[in-house]
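WARN retry 2 of 3 for item q-0093 after timeout on previous attempt; input resubmitted unchanged.
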Amino acid sequence: MPIVKRFTYAVATAAAAAFLFVAPAVAQETHVFQFALQNGMQVVVVPDHRAPVVTQMLWFRVGAVDDPPGLSGLAHFFEHMMFRGTKTVKGDQFAQTVARNGGETNAFTTHDYTAFYEQIAKDRLSLVMNLEADRMANLDLSDSNVNTERNVVLEERRMRIDNDPQALMREQMDAALHLSHPYGRPVIGWPDEIRHIGRKEAQDFYNHHYAPNNAILIVAGDVTPDEVRKAASAAYDKVSPRELTPRAEFAQPQRLGETRLSVYRPDVKVPLLMRFYRVVSYTEAKPGEAEALETLAQLMGGDATSTLYRELVVKRRLATNAAASYDGYARDNGTFGIYAIPRPGVRLDQLEHAVDQIISTYTKKMPADADLKRAKTQLVADAMYQRDNQYSLASAYGQALSIALTTDDVDTWPDRIRAVTAEAVRDAAVKDLLPREAVTGYLQPGKPR
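OK item q-0093 returned
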């Protein structure tokens, strides 16, 4: 199952920003209904009658920040464990049952939440609801299942992180950026801590997090609110609420200066410059501040018309690629990232100096009206182009509610983007792109030093 990281690599960030906020683009023609079940489960219904299919997403307010000390990766481990079977639906029968009925299922974990989903024909909605309700109450956490899945996660880590120099570099930079905040721990976990996950630890974590009163059910598709209420009550109200482990509120330690990392590895094919700033998120920001950062990222490095690409790749020919992005969809701080790949013969310090010049320009001058209009139009348009994706509709609301935002925050996003001014973009660059809030990394081929 895929891990959804808090910050995707900058090469894909324009698409990521659009994905996060696809629902706002259709908010004016989409009616969203909300209610709660008797056991405390929150339910959101997004009717979409264009085809007789539905997307069910079950979002748990538990992620890597909730991993107990010394057991990083436990929330991601449960993304796997939920597919290991129950007393009645054994082994991989969950996924096989969904597939036999023409559907698909998967899951993802971030620092802030874990989500499970099924996409299937409308008349199979009750089937997948009952499957989810069963594994919410009756998961098989036997020693054999826990040990097997722990080894699967360790192998996944070896394949996706340990064998990927960029992923390892990012992991190190996250740890440096966030200091003692748990956003600095990898979602997949540190290897030695994953090895400490046993049946006892798994059972305790399951009992106190994967409960209906810690879940948000999103159903988008060819359904009415009454149909969903009836089916959800029949399936999920059978699962009793449980005592939850309260979510901790973490301080974000003050950063006193910039951090710099240089990593040399023989498996690096081309050098890479990365920089990440710790900035405000949508949940922390004052009105308009996060939207200004979103627009700044689009202007600076969102696509081939952006400043970084035009200046570094096209005009000055210092880089083969360059981009920027803003990841503000988090319970605590967000991240503003910049990345660039130098052309052969260009040193990373030369490239970094050119990047700094571009950043300095944004802190001193307001963007041109035409550039600002294009960036804002692109942000909203990217979301609108995905409006036919039922999964994206459900995801937008699930992500927002999982980090304590509201459906209204989702619905009003396009208008807030349109309202961003040139002054707000400049002010965001001045206030948030501070050297002391940054980690700069050089990834280069060579022997480790």
